[in-house]
Design brief:
The chain is of the alpha/beta class and about 280 residues long. The chain is about 45% helix and about 20% strand.
Length: about 280
């Protein structure tokens, strides 16, 4: 017979909806949904054209699937918000698995009705493919549990995190949200390539002089931040590899911004010549 704690953790929270953006996520989506369903009464999948078994797995698990071509990072989350039935929302990515400890904390928040604060940070803990989860470094608190009557995701193509204005109280929950962010180095490189292209294309454009300075000098700074400041040195040789890849990923954004700025300048000159 299950204990009272186990029985409490098994029943969903009626006032909470979870939305998840997906695109070819069959690797983990079943486990992500299974964990989220322990606290959310509704799970909405916002799928941007999966060709694998993502939609099949989600529908078999009882999720409501919204087929939405990619609009951009923040806009896609807005679609999830708009299709949820509850006002309290949980924003989960398709590679983030809720720990039992975090599920228990969320249940406790809703035990007597709506939580007292409008937004809560969840502790994103990386679970790499090699080695143990990074429970003592590179913890990334994200505002992922919130009341949409008070906060909404940004209408932005390049940014998809809540902006917490001054005066809004926030509390950080302690249970881990396990982030299986990459399956191997090749996958991580693919993500950095896609992400840097999106940021260069849709993000706020830097002044050309700033872009050039970053292309020339920023790589060591990016590496220092990843390896020392964010603690990847704790992961040994594998951490060194990941820190270098992280620096390259950030530098690629600058390089692609430089390329776009040059292309736009050349096109502008061509138009001037054509008009002259």
């Amino acid at each position: 017979m299950s204990s009272p704690t186990q029985q409490r953790a098994a029943a969903p929270v009626a006032q909470l909806s979870c939305y998840i953006r997906t695109h070819n996520e069959e690797r983990l989506i079943g486990l992500v949904i299974e964990a989220a369903a322990k606290v959310a009464s509704e799970i909405v999948i916002v799928d941007s054209g999966s060709t694998d078994r993502t939609i099949e797995i989600a529908e078999n698990a009882g999720c409501r699937v919204i087929r939405q071509p990619w609009l951009g990072w923040g806009f896609q989350k807005r679609v999830g918000e708009d299709h949820c039935r509850n006002d309290w929302l949980m924003d989960i990515d398709a590679d983030e698995i809720m720990s039992p400890e975090l599920a228990g904390e969320i249940r406790d928040l809703f035990a007597s009705g709506e939580p007292p604060l409008p937004v809560y940070y969840l502790r994103l803990v990386t679970a790499p493919p090699v080695g143990k989860p990074w429970t003592n470094f590179r913890i990334d608190p994200r505002a992922k549990l919130y009341d949409r009557r008070r906060l909404r995701m940004p209408e932005d193509r390049a940014w998809d995190q809540l902006r917490i204005e001054g005066g809004i109280q926030v509390r950080e929950l302690q249970g881990a949200l396990w982030h299986h962010s990459f399956r191997d180095i090749a996958h991580l490189i693919e993500k950095y390539n896609r992400g840097s292209s999106s940021m260069a294309r849709d993000g706020r454009r830097k002044h050309p002089a700033v872009i050039r300075l970053r292309v020339l000098f920023a790589m060591p700074i990016y590496f220092f931040k990843a390896y020392v400041t964010r603690g990847l040195w704790r992961a040994g040789l594998y951490g060194l590899i990941l820190a270098r890849l992280s620096a390259i990923g950030r530098w690629l954004r600058d390089a692609k911004m430089y390329e776009l700025e040059r292309l736009e300048a050349e096109r502008k000159e061509e138009r001037k010549r054509d008009q002259g």
